[in-house]
Amino acid sequence: MNATAKRLGCTGTHFSNTHGLWEAENYSTPYDMYLISRYAYDRVPGFMEICDTYSYDFPPNVHNPEGYTMFTTNQLIKPSSEFYLDYVHGIKTGSIDEYYDDEGTTHPGGRSLVTTARKNGYTYLLVTMQAPFYNDSGEKYQYSALDHYNLYEWAYKSFIYQEVISKGEICTELDVLQGEEDRIQLVADSDFTTIIPSDLAEDKNGPIQRKRTLHFDEVIAPVKKGEILGKMDIVYQGEVVKTVDLVAAKSIERSQIAYLADRAKSLTETSWFSPLLMLLIACILINIVLMAVRRRRL
């Protein structure tokens, strides 16, 4: 268990037993619990089915001839609970009313809870630790469940998962020289979706901005479909959170007529073209004069 935790990147976790009951060297952190839970959520077959089970009937055995039923202690997936949310799933509760240190002194314990929630197309994973075990009246109370209930309800009301840019979306155009077409569209090469405050979702001048940078002022044919010709920075409150390549939407072949015309135009713009042209004209004129003189002599 400790080797696996280390492999997952946990830096504040140590297991001194396999059952989770209190021992001085049995400890973890919320972030480490996130890493472990996320690994199990993504990689362990059947993990979430087990965590999301409300009750389970065990078959008869030597100690329980008639069998018995176990119920979850997770109040967020228990339909009769005041904290029940139908979009919450798993994962694990943990609680201890009090514990003792190495000197034998007792200390008040607390409640820990790991859950996930899936709603509106996206998922949260929430870890809380050390919620009070008792209320002010000294009665047991599910403060960890209350925290998760309030945080999930707030999050899903306050934020929205919005597509900022979609793959294939037309972002700009470029001039094409010597091509069968003189303009080419540049499209986004990938999607980008992020969570933003709900009240800013429709604000075109909100915190998420697009900053476009082209690698060229114009391109020379041929151009291949998918060729990277620029980029789009997604900027949130002044910070670049994602960069998407802008690529050619299609291929454009070279036009031989346009190519020759452009080469001819380029030739006329060289520094030596005018003197060469004048010399050529002078040679032609001299040749005409010489021919005229020869005719008169004849």
SSE inventory with pairings:
Elements: H1 2-7, H2 30-43, H3 47-51, E1 55-58, E2 68-71, E3 88-100, E4 106-119, E5 122-132, H4 143-158, E6 159-165, E7 170-177, E8 183-188, E9 192-197, E10 208-214, E11 218-220, E12 228-236, E13 239-248, H5 256-268, H6 273-297
Parallel strand pairs: 7-11
Antiparallel strand pairs: 1-2, 3-4, 4-5, 6-9, 7-8, 8-13, 10-12, 12-13
Can you tag this structure with a few keywords?
six-stranded mixed beta sheet; 298 residues; 13 strands; three-stranded antiparallel beta sheet; 34% strand; rod-shaped; alpha+beta; 27% helix
Account of the protein in words:
This protein is 27% helix and 34% strand. It has 6 helices and 13 strands. It has a 6-stranded mixed sheet. A 3-stranded antiparallel sheet has the order 3-4-5, sandwiched between helices. Strand 4 and strand 5 form a beta hairpin. The longest helix is centred in the C-terminal third of the chain and has 25 residues. The model has no long low-confidence stretch (mean pLDDT 89).
Instruction: Give the CA-based shape.
Output: rod-shaped
Looking at how many chains there are and whether they match, the oligomeric state comes to single chain
- Enumerate the spans where pLDDT stays under 50 for 5 or more consecutive residues: none
Helix count equals 6
Largest sheet data = 6 strands, mixed
Secondary structure category: alpha+beta
Percentage of β-strand residues: 25-35%
Taken in chain order, the helices and strands follow as: HHHEEEEEHEEEEEEEEHH
* Helix amount: 25-40%
Measured distance between first and last alpha carbons = 114 Å
Q: How many strand segments?
A: 13
Question: Order of strands across the biggest sheet?
Answer: 10-12-13-8-7-11
How would you state the average pLDDT, rounded? 89
Global Rg: 36 Å
